[in-house]
Each structure stands twice: as structure tokens, then as C-alpha cells.
């Protein structure tokens, strides 16, 4: 028969159990909160999907949408995938591929139809509508650089997915608008626009690392922040950037200031959020 536990050892063991249970409860509440707020499985939306019971694998499963890794998190019962749905996705279903060291499965995720509004914008600078041939190479190179940044997947889990607004300005253009510049159709609006005076501080919605900084033809002064596991924030049309590539930022830290650079009709912030290289509606992430 073993020796009886000392009071000190017993108290320590109870504390470990309490901390463990508290962690599980917080995790469960966190995933529940994310499902309630983020789950909007439409083109340009987010699908929060249970993919596997905790006991089915000894390690975290990996999930892929096409070639892109998907954010995976756990509560006390299940592993969940937080899937960004590309704007170009047709209603119906998409295949989420899930793998562990000893198993593979495909989960069909239902995508509902959703119709976004249109927006017509008049630009005085015609070169911002139809750039001259000598500018097209620059635009092509800049686009490749930004697409590579969006495709980044780092293993660290995001510090939070319920965001505060990056600024307190008025929302001037929502996500998903089919945009027409001087009557010519262009890609749908991939983020949120906030109208605010030039110089207004822009804050990071979560902890992260500065991934890329650039001064681009369309986006102007731009900063990309990697929040972890394929969650990327992009802020553009800035007048000033306070950081350098590789810098670590904390939630609420000022990363730049509102401007009117690039293709812009007035001072404002364009902010977008990317999940698994899909631009999704940032409004889904804003604290309610």
C-alpha cells in the first residue's frame, strides 16, 4: 500500500486539476463564442467546422482547403477548423481535407448563397482606372509580393479572433461590394473602408508580427501583419507606418496612421483580413 499524500502534495494536485479544468472551460467557451460570431458560410465568409474528436488523435490534425493550410483549434471535446471561404466560391459545398499521421478524411462544408451590393466610384486620375502599359509590370510585381504574404502560414496560434476595430472612424464601404471605377467593373471590395482624418492612429486588432511593408501603386503605403496560422491583416492607403518587417506587435498597438495614398478618393483606412489565403469579411471578427 502506498504512502498517504502529504497535505502540500494533495493541495498541489487539486490546484493542477482546477487549472486544467479552467483551461478546458475557457477553451470550450472560446470555440463556442467563435462559432456564434464567425460562422457565416457564404462566399467571403467563415465556416467554423468540427473536424475530429479530441481522443481520435494524439497530435493536432491538419486541415487544408485546396493547397492552403487552415486554422485549427481545440476545445475540451473536439478539434475545429476556422475556414476562410474565398469570394469566388460558388454556393454548394467545398471539400475540407483533414489529416493526422495515421488518417485522412474529407469533410464537405456547405456554402450558402449571398448577394453583395454594387458601388460606383468616379476617379479623376484615369491612370488609376486603366494604368499605362509601363506601370503594368510594377503592378504585376507588387501583386505577386502581396499574394505571397497572404499565403503565409505560421504555426503559432492567434492570440484572439474577436477583434476591436483598428480605428474608430465611420464605415464608408463594406466588404464584398462589386466595384465600378468610372463605369468599369473591377474586383469586389476585399475589406472594410473606414473614413477618418489623415493622421488618425491605426491599431493592430491582435498580437502579431510585421510580415510586409510596401508603397504600392493601388494600395499606397501598406502593412501586412501575421497573427498566426494563416490569419493575416492588411492595412493600406496609410500616410505613415511606425514599424519595420519582423517587428512584434501587440493588440491595440499603433502600427500606422490613416492617409490618402494609392488609389483613394480621400483619407481613409482600408483593412482586410485573410484566412487560409482567402479574403474574408472583417466585420465578422469585430467585437459585438
UniProtKB/TrEMBL annotation:
Q: Does the keyword Nuclease apply?
A: no
* Cited SUPFAM superfamilies: Duplicated hybrid motif
Please give the InterPro entries that the UniProt record associates with this protein.
Answer: Cell_wall_metabolism_enzyme (IPR050570), Dup_hybrid_motif (IPR011055), M23ase_b-sheet_dom (IPR016047), Peptidase_M23_N (IPR040487)
Q: What keywords sit in the KW lines?
A: Signal
**Domain M23ase beta-sheet core, residue spans:** 188-282
Q: Which positions make up the signal peptide?
A: 1-28
Recorded hits in Gene3D superfamilies, A to Z, give: Glucose Permease (Domain IIA), Peptidoglycan hydrolase domains
Limits of the Peptidase family M23 N-terminal domain: 39-108
What this protein is called in its record is Peptidoglycan DD-metalloendopeptidase family protein
Organism of provenance:
Orrella daihaiensis
